[in-house]
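pinging the channel bc i need a second pair of eyes. not urgent but kinda urgent?? the chain im working w is below, pasted from the shared doc
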Amino acid sequence: MIGTRTAPIRGHGTRTWALALCVGGALAALAPARAQPEFVYRLEAGDRLLYERRATTRPLDGGPPTAEIDDQIELWCVQQREKEAFMLVTLTRTTAGRAEPARAAVLYIDEGGRRRLPPEVITHLDPVEPALELLPVLPVGAQVADAWNTPPDVYQRAWRCMSRGPDAGQQGGTRVDFEVEDPLGVDEALGQVRTGTYWFDARGGLMTRLESEQQDGLNRTWTHVSAVLRERTRQTPEWAARRTEEAGRFLRALGNEDRFVQELTARGDQLPRILERLDQLWATFKSDIDVRTVSPFWTLADAHRQELRAAAEVLETRAALALRWLNRRAVPWTLQDAAGRTVTCEAARRGVVVECFWSGESAAGLRVLEPMRRLQAELSTSAVRVLCYNLDADFVRARQVIRQCGGGLTQFLGGALVEVETLPELPVVRVLDSKGVIRGVWVGRQPAYPAAREMALELARPRP
């Protein structure tokens, strides 16, 4: 990586530096004229943007890199309609020289970068999330063009942005400094602070470069990220129309994949059959792709099959958990609540209960709490209770993360449950009937739990 350090960007005391880097070759044609055009995305059907991204992690107290990740990110505009672009975003990661299967998402963005995510995408978004940084939200509506806050993303985080104007060191691209804010307290609980800078080519209507740093207080590391636009190409309208149709089928396949995976926690004894159906799902998707033109979805179909095969052991443990739990009475307990009071399960589990097992050691474990708050609000007019168990062994930290992120929920210090409830994956949500029998299980963070809500309401409904 070539660069020189300049003045530090304001950022909560972290060592964040903006790098003035020369974007040559492919970016020369994208240089804006002296009169700055309107600050919007300018994407057309068939556009392909190729970025290279590198993330280097080092110890906070100095020393050689502990991890280096290289990503190739492609942003495809497959349809443009009514100032909204239908985008395919792909990310191919290489870690320690080993390439991973490509990850992808499809989404809509308007000319200001505001996103509209199909529900089938949200459960698959985490691995692709770094690519979405290359589509930042610009000032829209009544926002001032030199300082603005972006709308909350799917994780409820927002960017506080400040434009520094044209940057001669980046061929006149507009320099924007940003800080990431997390009102849910997840970043605070993990000790994470993120700041950075990106450059936007107003004439070309796209980001050309991003530099950022993230401090991770929990792991005592800091990570520097650099992403650069390498090329912009365009396919024909006919090519884009075929990809639009494939994107629709891709969404349907994602939804079916989620249904099959959830079936594992309802019918764990059917694991071989379900794994076979998952593989066949993507084999069928691939067979329907138009082979006469190069389609990124062809590669993605194989990538999903590889990923599911690699995850077979994880899926097997989910099935085993379902077989161990479902239709059996939940293990009794006596625990402390967040205030230090001793509570028995008989006192807490009154009627139908939704239980959430979580940890403060990962973002996924912390982010499940907001869906639990929404679920509790949706169940507020019923007799269903929502109980949360922090499974961290360190009770001091458990109380801390409950204060930071667990407000508004009934929380228990559940570290002792680890000895009797072997949970290979967190978070886990389950529904108990009024007799304490486990009737439903959901493994892994989900953006919402509508099936758990419906099951709980049905179990709580008075019987004639």
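so Residues 1-35 have pLDDT under 50 and may be disordered. and Residues 56 and 68 are 5 Å apart (CA to CA). — does that match what u expected or am i reading it wrong
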